[in-house]
Amino acid sequence: MVSFEQLRSADPASFDNLANKWSRLAGELSSTDSDLASAARPLEGWSGDAGDTARAHISDVRDGYSTAAEYIEKIPPALRTLSDAVSEAQKTVNSVAETVDSNGHLRLQTDGTVRAIPGGPGDMRSDEEKQAASDLAEELTGKISRALKAAKEADRTAVSALDKATPESAGLELEATGDGNIVTPADIPRDASAAEVKQWWDELSPTEQESAIYTHGDVIGGLDGIPAEDRDRANRIRFTEEYTQLNERRDELENLDPSGYSPEARELEEIDQTLRGLDAIHERLEREPTETRPEAYLLDFSTEGNGRGIVATGNPDTADNVVTSVPGTGSNLSKIGGELDKADALLDQAAQTERGSSNAAITWVGYDAPQDLGAATKADFAEDAAGDLQSFQDGLRATHEGQPSNNTLIGHSYGSTVVGHAAQGDKELDIDNAVFIGSPGVGADHVSELNLADGADVYAGTAENDVIRNTPPFIHDNQPINEDFGAEVFDAGEGTDSWYGTSTDAHSEYWDENSTPLRNLGRIVVGESPS
């Protein structure tokens, strides 16, 4: 039942938004049905029992999608009708409230009744005026009562319509998951190692895996040890929903044309920043793959706080060479587009270095990076990120198919500090190459303090004019380009200078096309030694 307070606080627009989402889902299911029909056409010439079985199975699956779309299409009209009814009832209530507010002798009660306030000793009204106020209170109470009754009836009608659109009504509940094939939150090994997660995932049936992806995508999408293709599918579902919601909200705010200092203006600015990053990810996911720039996989993302994003260009589970890049100070979701461009530069250079090589480049904006130089003097951000980065690298090993890949971890600027802290502690960081480029220091004084896999190489390079060279050792310890650190130092070029020598420009030129540092990074990625 709908109470008066519930009616006043209801948001009709939320019903319309839900209706739009259900409409999109119905359209997607119908499109999938059509796609399956197209994919099945080559099977028409397949004769024999196997062909008949395959066609029958595809027909059953298509029927499921078609039926689901048919029943889901019943949901939007019910929600939109409810939205209209609630809006109309709220107009009546608001009109009554305005009348009460303009009349000093009436009061609107929390149960929706309007009461005439008895006159006190100083009340100079005549009996006729007092009676008129009482009559008006009764009339207004009647209006609210009728509005509330209409809202209740609309609510009952919507519930009845939605009940007829359930999976049970469509006969799809068991077909969607099957008895015993549902994965519950308690089943997911959230705190297990990446290897243990991979083992758990492999032991699930295909139907159980689908259940986990579609019902717990927010967990599966970010769980190290889940294969890249499955993480990508889980994350794309969630990404599409958030991306659509934010675009719709931005349109709403832009239509309001908020002033510069209003809460709406601040919200619009925040949404624009978030969408800058989501737009870049969306472009990468939808980009047509080429020989050197393969298909992209969304391995995790978050719009909370400064935002996070982990995107692989190329499948790290099948590539021969896998490189993960960790950016530094100022990195966040809104700026991920520039980091994705660096991944392209690495892939292009790796392909030029070793023709025909199979490579994947991962952009790991997977931590809360310091957003200014003052914060970048602290090790807290790197210490907090170390465990996640180490787990992610373990996940790359656990899910890789066939022979182990050549895994390179590049830390740029404060990102090198993150890599350095991830490589310290009791647990080994399972990589083949650690690359510190433009590094202020990695939280260690010598390579012997880094707990890396046997045979792992440690490389370091900083441009001659990179301003990061001015970082004193008491901030993040010994810079890895120093001879006494023990890393193999490679030529990272000179970089742009300034009138006083070093420059900030030189700090971001390592991925410039045909540059010395990019050529050396390409060599490391494919397993060669830098010059």
Automatic annotation (TrEMBL):
Composition-biased stretches (Low complexity): 31-40
Keyword Cell cycle attributed: no
Under the heading InterPro entries, the entry gives:
AB_hydrolase_fold, DUF1023, ESAT-6-like_sf, PPE_sf
Coiled-coil portions? 236-288
> What Pfam families does UniProt report for this protein, alphabetically?
Abhydrolase_8 (PF06259)
Q: Does the keyword Hydrolase apply?
A: yes
Name recorded for this polypeptide:
Alpha/beta hydrolase family protein
